[in-house]
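Incident review: delayed structure delivery

Summary: a single-chain prediction request sat in the queue longer than the usual turnaround. Root cause was a stuck worker, restarted by the on-call engineer. No data loss occurred. The affected request and its eventual output are reproduced below so the record is complete for anyone auditing the incident later.

Affected input:
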Amino acid sequence: MLFIDPFGMQLTWKTVEAVGRTKAIDTWILFPVSAVNRLLKKDGNIPAGWRKRLDTMFGEPDWFDVFFPKRPVGLFDTDPDGREKAADMKVIGKYFNQRLASAFAGVAPNPYTLRNSRGAPLFLLCFAAANPQAAPTAIKIAQDILRRDPA
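Output delivered after worker restart:
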């Protein structure tokens, strides 16, 4: 069992893939969904350094098209390449879980949302199972844990 609690957004996709390739280590990941959301500017103009950090964390640049889909171009559109943010915390979490599924044998579909005192999401507690034979059982157990109310 491995627990990954990255400092800020210092998680690299290469690390996630390496753990998944072991086919032996079930992993809990504390994913910083709030930090990712803060980097996603509404107009899609994200500084190169931020994009690189997000590319490294997600392991690919495809997140941009998911979080900032191309919008239909109108007849009088002055900015045909303009994009607007379509991602919220749920979309970001779903995307990260889909990425996890590409590296692990199984992923719990219901990450637990950790919130601040005002109820704003800060982190997602995600579970991924590396062993293909044990994944269904591990996912079942993890889903039960993730459904519990911590209070």
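Verification: The radius of gyration is 17 Å.
Action items: add queue-age alerting; document worker restart procedure.
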